[in-house]
Amino acid sequence: MSNSRGDWLEGELERRGVSRREFMGFCGTMAAALSLPATLVARIAEAVEQSPRPTLVWLEFQDCCGNTESFLRSSRPTVADVILEAISVDYHETIMAAAGHQAEQNLAEAIERDRGKYIAVVEGSIPSGENGAYCTIGGRAALDIAREVCGGAAATVAIGTCAAFGGLPAAAPNPTSALSVADAVPGLQNLVNLPACPANGENLVALLVHYLTFGRLPELDSLRRPLFAYGKLIHDACQKRGHYDAGQYAEAWGDEGHRRGYCLYKLGCKGPVTYQNCPNVGWNEGTNWPVGCGHPCIGCAEPSFWDRMTPFYRHLPEIPGLGPHASLDKLGLTAVGVVGGAFAAHTALHVARQSAERRRQAGEGEEES
Amino acid sequence: MSRIVVDPVTRIEGHLRIEAQVEDGTVREAWSSSTMFRGIEIILKGRDPRDAWAFAQRICGVCTTVHAITSIRAVENAIGAVPPPNAELVRNLVMSAQLVQDHVIHFYHLHALDWVDIVSALEADPAQTSKLAESISDWPKTSPRYFAGVKGRIETLAKSGRLGPFANAYWGHPAYKLPPEANLMAVAHYLEALDWQREFIKIHAILGGKNPHPQSFLVGGMAVPIDPNEQASLNVGTLEQVRRLIHEARQLVSQVYVPDVLAVAPFYKEWAGHGGTAGHYLVYGEYPETPEAGAPLVLPGGVIRNRDLANVEAVDTDKITEFVTHSWYAYEGGDAEGRHPTQGETAPNYTGPEPPYEHLNVEGKYSWLKSPRYDGLPMEVGPLARTLVAYAKGQPKVKALVDHVLGALGVGPAALHSTLGRIAARAIETQVMVDKMEDWVDGLMANMGAGDLRICDNDKWDPSTWPEECAGAGFHEAPRGALGHWVHIQKGQIANYQCIVPSTWNAGPRDAGQAPGPYEQAIVGTPVANPEQPLEILRTIHSFDPCMACGVHVLDARGRELAEVRAV
Q1: In Å, how far from its chain's centre is CA A88?
Q2: ipTM
Q3: Cα dihedral A155, A159, A161, A166 in deg (nearest 10)
Q4: B7, B153, B161: residue with CB nearest A137
Q5: Interface mutation target, options B16, B166, B168, B359, chain A, most CBs of A under 10 Å
């Protein structure tokens, strides 16, 4: 490119009617989302203007397209658009103009030209059953494509719970032997998981800005989730937390407690065992989030949530003698341990679920109040 | 004779492959294959029916409300729950917002690039573009400076040498007919619609917590409390926010979307003669005008055979069967007979080539989609089917708009059975629905004012109030067409779950009698100027708005699930 990145961005901002002030505001929001000190705002702006336009390829496998749609909803639209255009999205089936072999050619060229430099985003799980025939693109198995593309990437983002942890296709009994990206491409370095069903588009944008700004990935937890978005329990940042602490609960849909915004714990809320920044960032430009709307959290950012968090409307267990508050804190800690442990074995989960159901039917399990 | 393969078909939801036999520049035969499978019905077995909506919702993240709605309706039908009026009104708003947003995104972001040549827009004169835009609508963003800015954006992209998602497409193809100014206007509206969709869908955040995958669905109601005196509830302030978003959507639809369709269509009038199916249409019907049971539907149901608009039959869902003759499943008693969804019996049976492969064996099984049939016939579903049924039944708003569009283009109703007809029908029903939405806001306001704050049938919430065994069906008109879920519940758990989805109707393979599905019918006869660049095939396929993840999931396999249970 003949002109510098800064000139280009400035021209773009002007054409789109975005003031310098608004752009800096956007960078400030990004800094906040990344939990960075305010002094870094200028540095982010500088980095975004000066970094080269990196290549991004987006692969869709056993997906529902929800993460793509979420990406399209990223907020601060005009400026975010500029940021998105600052990245060259060379392959994305849902939005790209080319089709068929021309589309596949774009992918092949991008990963060849920018080997070791491009960002790969993966949406959806990857089936390993039936020699890969449960998901093929251009006649190639998803597993084959994932290994080639992620293997040559500078960084891979597994977006959504399906790509990050296997998600719905991997829920018991996992009919297609669906795998997460980490399991499908073993030993992958620079893998970031952005779980949730779907992931919040704001978190993807924040991750990309972080990467562009610092040239490296943000700090991750043991499940490879960025701490800036998955560092706290929903319960600890929840707007209804005061009601929980005061023992004020919604007991039935539309009752006085529900209308007053009381805690949804008794209706099945999984906020106490779920790490995600929904209460801080919100959805759709901060318009709302599920608990804010009146429905319990279903724990969609956690591994195996379709098995571990169901039935969704049964409240989390209390530990006798400790009271709800203590039990929930303890449960949160327990869940962290569980997440990294043997619960990834889907058959085991299925067994656990079935036997739990049998216990419940036999009246031994606990019932909703 | 040459075999064209388009895989992946892009700018759709999911994974679709088209193989077509082309001779003398025309498609002679075509095969539609879906190449991804997850098995969501298997996963649903044994679960709490009240959870099913969340599982089913994830069938699709584009039409992200439709399976949730249909699922809760099926379970309600089974257990006898009756959602209160407020829940029905909120559902109407959630469903119609989905339809409006989905159709606009489809037109601009998934379909437009089949008709709009972005590269040609580089030659447009912004002043002339401004005149063109002002001649077709009152939309305010029409200044020459504005269009110069949009043109500048494309120029910047082109100069960078990296076209990103616009690279390597069919630009310059002889089938592109729009003058540069119309192309530039369309690109501007592509970008405006991208901003608008993000704004409009806040309706789902208000009524459902978030989008994609709004989360306020409940068996028996909706989980969004209503109370004019509570800030944690839907109140006058939040409903006014919904009203504002509806107003903005009405402006965009009536001043941008519909005028663009009318402005572009005359350049592509020959497409009123391509892309038609045999003309069998199925519509379940949707959008009760008012919450009362049996209320008239804004978009009525019906069945049309052989393009005969004079005879619209009532729908009888007992006439639905599904075939697996050419699908990668096996029926225990053989693949020659179709089965009703309540008798659905399926096991995956992949017999296709081992990947990587060049061609599918279209003589045998070649898709993860089944082939649904109505009274033995392949049916087209979706906006065109709905518009034709409503038109034939004399729905006044639909009739007026159809007549207006046909008059503007100087064609008769026969032109509707086509690629262009599908595009026009989608725009027409978007206008009808966006004009209707505010009535339901008014309904909620009125209920709230009268003190009716109920949002859920709590009497049926506890599974102990349900029959030990029950079955039900739920129906919906998704943006892409007729959608049905069938559920069988035993002892409070899902014993069987089946869906028949719009894209299964439209995109399914041949049946036992070798009758092709609607996609396969529609492409036959399409001219293909350059087999290396089959733009014309994409035009017709995209006109259906494929949603493949929705289509493929149809399974209630017993083998694996039972083996799993036995292992326990």
Answers
A1: 22
A2: 0.94
A3: -50
A4: B7
A5: B168
Contact of B455 with B225, CB cutoff 8 Å: yes
Partners of residue A158 on adjacent β-strands: A122, A193
Residues of B within 8 A of A298 (CB-CB) are 54, 215
- Report the amino acid identity of residue A221: D
Kindly report, residue by residue over B34-45, the tens digit of the pLDDT.
Answer: 999 998 988 999
| Rounded mean pLDDT, A100-115 | 96
- Judge whether B344 and B498 are in contact, CB under 8 Å: yes
Instruction: Give phi and psi for B20, each to the nearest 5.
Output: -140, 140
Q: Write the CA distances from A148 to A122, B37, B284, integer angstroms.
A: 12, 22, 45
Span B115-131, pLDDT tens digits: 999 999 999 999 999 99
Nearest-Cα distance to chain B for A120, in Å, is 14
* CATH number for the segment(s) A5-229: 3.40.50.700
Cβ contact (<8 Å) for B165 and A90? yes
- Helix, strand, coil shares of chain B as percentages rounded to 5? 45, 15, 40
**Cβ pair B141, B192 in contact under 8 A:** yes
Domain ranges of chain A: 5-229, 234-361
For residue B287, the distance in angstroms to the closest alpha carbon of chain A comes to 23
CB contact under 8 A, B166 and A144: no
CB A6 within 8 A of CB A49: yes
Q: How far apart are CA A261 and CA A246, in angstroms?
A: 13
Name the residue of chain A whose CA is nearest to B242's CA: A287
Q: Is the pLDDT score of A53 beyond 90?
A: no
Q: What value does the CA radius of gyration of chain B take, rounded to a whole number of Å?
A: 24
Tokens 């899902």, residue located: B494
A339 versus A46: which is more confidently predicted? A46
Confidence at residue A28, expressed as pLDDT on a 0 to 100 scale: 65
Instruction: Enter the tokens of residue B156.
Output: 């910047």
Given phi > 0 = left and psi -120 to 50 = alpha, else beta, which region is B172? left
The answer to whether A161 contacts chain B (CB < 8 Å) is no
| Domain A234-361 indexed as CATH 4.10.480.10 | yes
User: What residue of A is the nearest CA neighbor of B11?
Assistant: A94
Using the Cβ of B558 and the Cβ atoms of chain A, whether some distance falls under 8 Å is answered with no
Q: Which of B59, B64, B225 sits opposite A258 (nearest CB)?
A: B225
- Dihedral sign computed on CA atoms, order B53, B59, B61, B63: negative
* List of residues 6+ apart from B439 with CB closer than 8 A: B289
Hey, is the C-beta of A214 within 8 angstroms of any chain B C-beta? no
A139 and B350 in contact by Cβ < 8 A? no
Contacts of B232 in chain A (CB under 8 A): 259-261, 294
Asked if the Cβ–Cβ distance from A261 to B205 is below 8 Å, we say no
CA distance B314 to B566: 44
Q: What is the CA radius of gyration of chain A?
A: 22
Beta carbon pairs, A and B, within 8 Å: 343
Nearest to B568 among A8, A78, A354 (CB): A354
As a whole number, the mean pLDDT across chain B is 94
Helix, strand, or coil (residue B211): coil
Measured between CB atoms, does A67 come within 8 Å of chain B? yes
Q: What is the DSSP letter of A62?
A: B
pLDDT score recorded for residue A348: 39
d(CA B491, CA A334): 31
Q: Would you tell me how many other CB atoms lie within 10 Å of the CB of residue B2?
A: 10
**Residues of B acting as catalytic residues:** 13, 60, 63, 67, 480, 503, 547, 550
Question: Are A99 and B458 a contacting pair at CB < 8 A?
Answer: no
Structural domains in chain B, CATH included, are 2-322+375-567 (1.10.645.10)
Per residue in B413-467, pLDDT tens? 999 999 999 999 999 999 999 999 999 999 999 999 999 999 999 999 999 999 9
